[in-house]
Amino acid sequence: MQKVVSISLNGNSYQLEEPGYEELRVYLDRAEARLADSPDRSEVMADLEQAIGEKCRAVLGPHKSVVSAAEISGIIREMGPVESPDGKPADAGFAPGEAPGPTPGLHPRKRLFKIREGQMWAGVCNGVAAYINVDVTWVRIAVALLTLFSGGGVLLVYIVLAFIVPYADTAEDRAAAFGMPFNTEELIKSAKKNFEEFGDKYRWRREWRRQQRHWNRQFRHMNEQLRVATAQAAPIASQTARAIGSVFVPIAALVGAILFVAWILAMFSLVTQHTIFGWPLPYHIPMWVGLLALVMLYLVISGPLRMIRHGGQQAGGHHPGWGLLHGLMWIGFTALLFWAAYNFFPGVRELIDQLMWAANLTATTISETIV
Amino acid sequence: MDLTEKLVPLRKGLLEFVILKIVAGDKVYVADMLKLLGPTEFATQEGTLYPLLSKLRREELVDYEWQESEAGPPRKYYKLTAKGRTQLSTLNDYWKNLNRTLADFGN
To answer: A290: which residues sit within 8 A by CB, 6+ positions away?
Structure first.
């Protein structure tokens, strides 16, 4: 049995066996790299795709709908290496039979993406770390220090990046974010290599991972039991949740949008007039602290809203209303906790006031030292 | 460098000339060109031919039109332009001169 990949060649769809798909992808990537300087690149690529499509159609019939890997190899041999007539002199000669090997243009170009795995805020630092190939901690430290010394300028850059840089959500994006070849074979190869190095150097770490896996398994098992129990007990509850969800998701989206606009306006007014909707910052709080606070505030408020929206949209797996309930509970819980703590525990109140005071003092001191 | 290697750039340079000659006849489709070239010294593959044709079109020496085919999507049929025709006759003359010069130098 072979896994089949559906592809589109110049507007027509074909089904290829997976190894064949890989080979064809490499061929076309290489062709595109060769034609990188040619003004006819898109036209030639379309011509090549059409020619390949025609050859694929020739091997298909009423009772054969998939092009085999061997047939793709044959087609690629027939097509021959792509040469740019006005580019640099191609290394291969006139005759077919270029030795297959990695070419510089083969690997996907590295691109800046936001990366969700292990993100702190928007995943920008994570993406930058992957892009320049250093540990994310260093990037975070650098961003924090630069924020302090640039008086908030870097923070603005961060915010701008958070909005314009896309998330790496597909496997190909992720490969491009790390600049790794997206090719099953290469992935397996690099995984194997990593594993071997890992085995020698970090034996204790492997032990630790194993222990962690064990815990994870237990946790999953527990979760599964819980899920089965709730599924049996709560068809009504989930229906209710779904009904509430259908009401709340649009509201959450609307509130989220309003909040976002308000936030942008607040940032804008803070930067231009040094007030937040007419409310001036206390004189000893520098502007960047205000900006930081606004960003934090926005994230804290918008987080649960986002959770509601995503939970509501999520189909299958969990109950659709789960994210919504979770989000609402989270908002309510946080608010209640703060309110209760501030009102009923003088110690906490004192602590929060003191913390605020200390934060203000630190901020003033830092800003005074810099200025 | 052995002899065959020396002949490669020669054939490569002449391929453009040969293509113009082929296109000068009837309108042709790439598969037909490949079939014509196949048994000759100029046997070529799509990977070389398509980029070359695109370049010739950019230089306005050839042009193409879409024609329906019995099976599958429409195909590009190439033909020579007026500019291509003048360049082809220049090339023809040049080639004849070249032959004469070579003959004049003796065996």
So the answer is: A270, A276, A281
Global confidence as pTM: 0.42
The boundaries of the domain holding residue B73 are 3-104
Query: B22: helix, coil or strand?
Result: helix
State whether ipTM is beyond 0.85. Answer: no
* Tens of pLDDT, residues A163-202: 777 777 776 677 777 765 455 555 666 666 666 655 555 5
Q: List the CATH number of the domain containing B36.
A: 1.10.10.10
Beta-strand runs (E) in chain A: 4-9, 12-17, 66-67, 275-276, 279-280
- The two three-digit tokens of residue B14, written as one number: 């002449």
Q: Provide the number of structural domains found in chain B.
A: 1
> Cβ of A47 and B50 within 8 Å?
yes
Flag whether residue A31 sits within 8 Å of chain B, measured between CB atoms: yes
Q: Which residues in chain B have Cβ-Cβ distances shorter than 8 Å to A78?
A: 45-46
The answer to whether A4 touches A17, Cβ cutoff 8 Å, is yes
The structure tokens 């190095």 sit at A197
Question: What Å distances lie between residue A295 and A271, A291, A342, A362, CA to CA?
Answer: 13, 6, 23, 19
Report whether A139 contacts A112 (CB < 8 A): no
Handedness of CA A64, A67, A68, A74 (dihedral sign): positive
Q: Does A56 contact B at CB distance below 8 Å?
A: no
DSSP state of A82: -
